[in-house]
Amino acid sequence: MGLAGRRRVRPVGDIVMQDYIAGLPKAELHLHIEGTLTPDQRRDFAARNRITLPDDAFIAKTPTPAAEGQSPADMAAWSLAEFLRLYFLGLETLRTAEDFRDMMVAHLRNCAAENVVYSEIMFDPQAHTTRGVAFEAVMEGLLEGRRIGREFGADSNVILCVQWDRSPESAMATLDTAKPFSDEIVGLGLDSTAVGTDTSDFELVYNRAEDEGYRLTAHCDCDIPGAAQRIRDCVEILGVERIDHGINVLDDPDVLALVRDRRITCTVCPTWRIGDPGPRRITQLKAMRQAGIVVTMNSDDPGYFASRTMGNMVSEINRAGLFTEAEIAQFMVTAFEHSWAPAETRARHVRSVHDYVAAFERPSHG
Ligand code: ADE
Ligand code: ZN
Description:
eight-stranded parallel beta sheet, binds adenine, binds zinc ion
């Protein structure tokens, strides 16, 4: 029987439930390493690199759409653009290989503390190389951080993201630069804002990346104009096997069927901002799961969102009550199974979730 079919694991109230979520082995497939920088970290990196930035670079608040009279799609595009403005400002605090290493280690320490035992971590090289930071310095730092994380039980792989809002030529040049590191990079993604861009512009980039052995994903941000069509184009033109976000499959039955039938993984982010009442997008997460879509939960940019890190976010989702603990465990099984880790690693983690749930269900916990 699948985990989600088992009885509720709700032994003796909230404390035990939260312990259960805390101890559950977790995986995350959609996280931007530059988005892990908290306001304090951004301040520390800016100070150590003697970089002066506008106050916006250090604020905790992510924007909530204010503009009245706009369509929901325009509001979503505005909100994404405002978030990205702060995100790209904040990452200007990073300069050296040591910065990238320390950022990675700090993040992986949080993972270890929350039993996030495996993560796929995106990075945005174009935002660094265009500021004069060498690609090699970025990689050296991230890979050293990954190595250190593995020593304390937080395993990870990295995904190189090129940006929708930069040219395909720049994306190609980034693949050239990445060539010596391609064995250490598990996949290629596309992030930043797709608004106003053409998916087919990136077809050759994706063809080449596939030839070079990268696994393929792309962001289709939530509710932006043309979101469902964008998902279709990423699957049919770019040949992705994963969509980052992807909740707008629910807008179009044909796109939903395409994503379901091709077993495309949607890495949904039920994050929330300061001022939001709680986890967003959990009803969509539930509907996607019920429609047979392969779907996972992810924290995206924990340094910028009130939802913070994966462990905290999953715990709050559990409290919201829409999913049983067994369903939450099943989300983790799905994430491990559809991760880009080697087959033995995936199988080992899946077993560990099953063992964990079985141990919790024994009467000694009841
Ligand atoms: N880069 C970092 N976070 C992002 C997000 N949520 N969407 C698109 N690009 C991003
Ligand atoms: Zn993202």
